[in-house]
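Please fill in the sequence for the structure shown.

STRUCTURE ENCODING:
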């Protein structure tokens, strides 16, 4: 297991500064968010020269770029199950551009989700749209040796892939080695499911983990140890499963005014386990 930190809550800082601070805190890796640098680090605006600058800074600091979260937010018009065919198409193309960003950053995966179906769109139709888009994007990812890490959501964020059963079903239906699973601890807690079940049932398909805490009622994205999640159970199960991927601290934007404090809490949390 390796320590990692998501960069979304560092949105007010240049990425070079973020990398330096996380290196000082002894993180092994960073998960770069499209919301970094106040949202300018979007694959639609990114160019090769900027990727090279960030990549070289990470290499200089001996911090691995663990992954790229392209932030598929329906509120920003990125939704693979929108009732609008145009939005679905644009979202699919956005994911493809994120795959190219990941390639430029020399990282291995892009974080995605299956979206939010609006009122009047039944789940069966939304599911078929999600599968269609994921199949197209995984074929594209296969050609560039990039993985798509599919994140399950809470009902307030998305309503297509929410539960463990949803995640297992869509992985099976898309049936691609380049589509893998992302476990979010806070989402599991809000949905009232078992973290242990996720690790055991996903098995080798589990390639990345978002670490955040809450009280089980709302997805607050608190630093670990600030809520009700029993992380001892998670780490015991991960050790038994010989999990070798990254665990990425993901505090909310509420910590953006003082992100170092939340990142420091995250590292102290990791030091309890490895």
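FILLED IN BY: designer on duty
SEQUENCE:
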């Amino acid at each position: 297991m390796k320590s990692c930190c998501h960069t979304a809550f560092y949105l007010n800082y240049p990425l070079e500064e973020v990398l330096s601070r996380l290196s000082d805190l002894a993180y092994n890796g960073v998960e770069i968010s499209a919301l970094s640098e106040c949202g300018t680090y979007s694959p639609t605006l990114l160019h090769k020269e900027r990727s090279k600058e960030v990549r070289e800074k990470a290499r200089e600091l001996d911090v691995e770029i663990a992954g790229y979260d392209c932030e598929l937010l329906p509120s920003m018009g990125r939704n693979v199950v929108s009732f609008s065919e145009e939005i679905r198409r644009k979202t699919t193309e956005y994911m493809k551009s994120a795959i190219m960003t990941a390639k430029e950053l020399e990282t291995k995966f892009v974080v995605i989700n299956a979206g939010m179906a609006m009122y009047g769109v039944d789940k069966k139709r939304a599911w078929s749209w999600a599968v269609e888009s994921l199949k197209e994007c995984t074929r594209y990812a296969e050609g560039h040796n990039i993985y798509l890490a599919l994140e399950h959501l809470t009902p307030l964020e998305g309503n297509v892939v929410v539960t463990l059963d949803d995640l297992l079903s869509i992985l099976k239906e898309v049936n691609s080695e380049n589509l893998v699973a992302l476990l979010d601890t806070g989402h599991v807690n809000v949905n009232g499911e078992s973290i242990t079940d996720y690790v055991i049932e996903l098995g080798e398909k589990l390639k990345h983990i978002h670490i955040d805490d809450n009280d089980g009622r709302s997805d607050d994205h608190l630093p670990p140890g600030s809520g009700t999640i029993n992380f001892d159970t998670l780490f015991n199960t991960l050790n038994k499963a010989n999990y070798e991927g990254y665990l990425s601290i993901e505090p909310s934007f509420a910590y953006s005014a003082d992100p170092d404090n939340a990142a420091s809490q995250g590292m102290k949390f990791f030091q309890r386990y490895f």
